[in-house]
Amino acid sequence: NPENEIHVKRARADEVIVSDQFVDYFVAGDALEPGMSSIVSKLLSAKSDHRLSTAAIPSRFRGKTFAEASQFFKNQHHMVALGILSEVESIGIGDFLAADSSHLDAFIERKLKEAGKTLGEENKTIVNLNPEDGYIIRENEKAIVLV
Q: From 49, 64, 70, 102, which residue has the greatest number of CB atoms within 10 Å?
């Protein structure tokens, strides 16, 4: 429900999915690309033989290209690599506040919480679909795969 999205984010949920975001896509998508809603429905179905997933990229592929990692997933696991999922550690205001919790730091933290804000310490997830073949794999990245 779109009205609850802000509350779910304030509760620091890992992921927020608002189903209404996809209705327009399915309606317009099928008109422009017939069969697209069937494809997406199959990917999201619990009964489907194929689904979207993430897979750990072996450390030997750090510094190698997306094309090399894609070939590995195809040849070794019969998976199609669709992209890269990166988790970037945030540096939040909490990293700059004193560890001793001075009155000023406590005041800043309290005011942020009262405003429904966090200290910005949660990590950010970045989705990179269909990267260039030459994209270089980095640490803390996973492959987005079609299983």
A: 70
Least confidently predicted of 37-41, 81-85, 119-123, 143-147: 119-123
Q: Which CATH class is domain 51-147?
A: alpha beta
Domain residue limits, the chain: 1-49, 51-147
Angle at 20 between CA 85 and CA 51, to 5 degrees: 40
Report residue 83's pLDDT band, with 50, 70 and 90 as the boundaries: very high
3-state helix, strand, coil in the chain (%, to 5): 40, 20, 40
